[in-house]
Amino acid sequence: MTNRSVRNGENRDDVQELVVLLAEDGRPIGTAPKDQVHHADTPLHLAFSCYLFDDAGAVLLTRRALHKRTFPGIWTNSCCGHPAPGEDPEAAVRRRVREELGLEIADLRCALPDFRYRATASDGVVENEICPVYVGRAAGPVQPDPAEVMEHVWAQWHELRVAARLPWAISPWAAAQIPLLDSLHLVAFR
């Protein structure tokens, strides 16, 4: 199942993206259009984050496009997104990485299956997500969709550790995820 795709000649922007709404215990309780779910009282919903490494152990950071509804223009992890209703989470990560970054992923795995956060942007828009965190190896050159990603850079892990301590330097979810990932000693990726 796809969340945002081109079907029978439809424009990708004409397909309504749905997010999975969750109860406090993480059970799915319904869906809502993505363009209507993020506001000052965002309901808990399902998402994912992904950190992609290259063969030298550098990690891909992206800067969100300025028109994004939540946290526009902020530097963050490689890719974030929402699984569609009924979509396998790993398939959702692979789909979204292809859409946003033009990349395939090798050796994808879920590193933080129970990560959850709530963060409020400077404009009052809230993110409220149960957000499993994946790590993988980028396969091929980065070809970002400018509608999603305005800049990207390959960084060393120790630079991410520093950025995680600077609340203005990186997204709040990445700032919370990086120390947790660091504690896992992901040697295979760095």
Tell me what the structure shows.
19% of the residues lie in helices and 33% in strands. Mean pLDDT is 89; it is low at 1-12. It is of the alpha+beta class.
What attributes does this structure have?
single chain, about 190 residues, alpha+beta, four-stranded mixed beta sheet, three-stranded mixed beta sheet, 12 strands, disordered N terminus
Q: SSE order, as H and E?
A: EEHEEEEEHEEEEEHH
Q: Taking all residues together, what is the mean pLDDT?
A: 89
Structural class: alpha+beta
* Number of helices, where a helix is a run of at least 4 consecutive DSSP H or I residues: 4
Question: What ranges have pLDDT less than 50 throughout 5 or more consecutive residues?
Answer: 1-12
Largest sheet: 4 strands, mixed
Shape: globular
Rg for CA atoms: 16 Å
Report the helical percentage: 10-25%
Strands, count: 12
Name the strands of the widest sheet in spatial order.
7-4-11-8
Q: What percent strand?
A: 25-35%
- Our measurement of the CA-to-CA distance between the termini, rounded to an integer number of angstroms, reads 32 Å
